[in-house]
Design goal:
By secondary structure, this protein is an alpha+beta fold. It is built from 11 helices and 18 strands. It has 3 domains: 85 residues, Rossmann fold, CATH 3.40.50.20; 57 residues, 2-Layer Sandwich (Dna Ligase, domain 1); 187 residues, 2-Layer Sandwich (D-amino Acid Aminotransferase, Chain A, domain 1), CATH 3.30.470. The protein binds adenosine-5'-triphosphate and magnesium ion.
Length: 377
């Protein structure tokens, strides 16, 4: 369904998925006076605990989906992999934003690459791998990635020749994969944009990202890339959002190779590299998501300080017991976010820290604050 009139508080907004992205969306909606419904099977998931209603059911549970569709004026998603059938059930009953079509493209690397290529967007060299005799024309080393269900570097293998690639394909479950040339990255940047049904568009300043073991570790904003590249990233974000007729918040991850940008992937939702907006932007990416899907005017995306830096807090930090939260908060210009997850596991995103000031100062402060968490005494 599509919206004609803006959806105003106290209407009900649905969020499919119960992670931290949904938690912030629910909080932002609640602040604005909306009622919220979360559909998520985990009874202690971060978003379920702050929503007005938490439907504890599988994502494809027909009864829960029907209830959600009937109660909500709009439903949005907070993770990349909602079952297509679930979005279709919702789409028949209410407004779903972003559209099931946009989500289905972003959740499948092969569809995503085909979409980006057709739309004339710059992407790195890649090949499709779908059988165990594959011998694609690609320069090794290369990275084999499952087309679906990967996140935080999961479902990926670095391979150095075709026979290693075929062995990796079997290890990954013999499922459709994309094989990407491993690029020599100068750096990585991302842009979080918002588009509403009227075509209104807004972009946050471009952020610079450092990954460790395939997981985002550090985001610094504004990115230290030439103005031309930052402007180009925003322009590509706008072109992609328009090409998808996108409604909501969309993140575009880029590789910087030489002096050019290549699109890495799309996230059809707010993004980890936009978490700094919670503390250092006039409008957070989550408030922007609510504004966009409800057809409200988009909010001001400016930084409130010259710069910001965000570091992720992974479950590994709990190896020696509860981290020293007070130590991280010692610099007053640092904010602590914990998502309320009950079980810390290695590599699991448990929270983040954001610091602000000049870009350089913010980065030093955030990194030092995280070190202080595990310092004894
Ligand atoms: P996330 O969900 O955290 O965004 P993901 O599992 O979807 O991660 P990608 O974004 O594809 O995975 O890859 C994670 C990281 O691995 C990239 O940000 C980059 O640092 C590195 N990487 C991925 N593909 C390539 C490539 N072709 N060349 C060089 N580095 C790469
Ligand atoms: Mg990524």
């Amino acid at each position: 369904m599509s919206a004609v009139e803006p959806i105003l508080p106290p209407a009900t907004i649905g969020v499919l998925g119960g992670g931290q992205l949904g938690r912030y969306a629910v909080i932002a909606a609640g602040v604005m006076g909306y009622r919220t419904v979360v559909l998520e099977p985990d009874p202690v998931a971060p978003a379920g605990r702050v929503a007005d209603v938490h439907l504890v059911a599988a994502y494809d549970d027909d009864e829960a989906l029907r209830r959600m569709g009937d109660e909500c004026s709009v439903v949005t998603t907070e993770f990349e992999n909602p079952p297509a059938a679930a979005l279709d059930v919702l789409d028949r009953r209410t407004l779903v934003a972003p559209s099931p079509m946009a989500v289905s493209i972003a959740q499948d690397r092969l569809l995503e690459k085909a979409f980006l290529t057709d739309a004339g967007m710059p992407v790195g060299p890649y090949a499709v791998v779908d059988d165990d005799a594959a011998d694609p024309d690609i320069v090794y080393p290369a990275i084999l990635k499952t087309a679906r269900l990967g996140y935080d570097g999961k479902g990926q293998r670095l391979v150095s020749d075709a026979s290693e690639m075929r062995a990796a394909w079997r290890l990954l479950g013999s499922v459709p994969c994309v094989l990407e040339q491993a690029l020599d990255l100068r750096t990585e940047v991302s842009v979080v944009v918002a588009r509403s049904a009227s075509g209104a568009f807004a972009s946050y300043p471009v952020a610079e990202n450092t990954h460790v073991d395939g997981i985002l570790d550090l985001t610094v904003v504004p990115a230290s890339v030439p103005r031309r590249l930052a402007d180009r990233a925003v322009g590509l974000g706008l072109a992609i959002a328009d090409a998808l007729d996108y409604v909501g918040v969309l993140a575009v991850e880029f590789f910087v190779v030489g002096s050019e940008l290549l699109v890495n992937e799309l996230a059809p939702r707010p993004h980890n590299s936009g978490h700094w907006t919670l503390d250092v932007a006039q409008t957070s990416q989550f408030e922007q998501q609510i504004r966009a899907v409800c057809g409200l005017p988009l909010g001001d995306t400016s930084l409130t300080r010259p710069g910001a830096a965000m570091v992720n807090l992974l479950g590994d930090l709990w190896d020696d017991g509860e981290p020293h939260w007070d130590a991280a908060l010692q610099p007053g210009h640092t904010a602590l976010h914990l998502y309320g997850k009950t079980t810390p596991r290695a590599g699991r995103k448990m929270g983040h820290l954001t610091s602000w000031g000049s870009r350089e100062r913010a980065e030093l402060t955030a990194v030092a604050a995280r070190v202080a968490l595990s310092r004894r005494g």
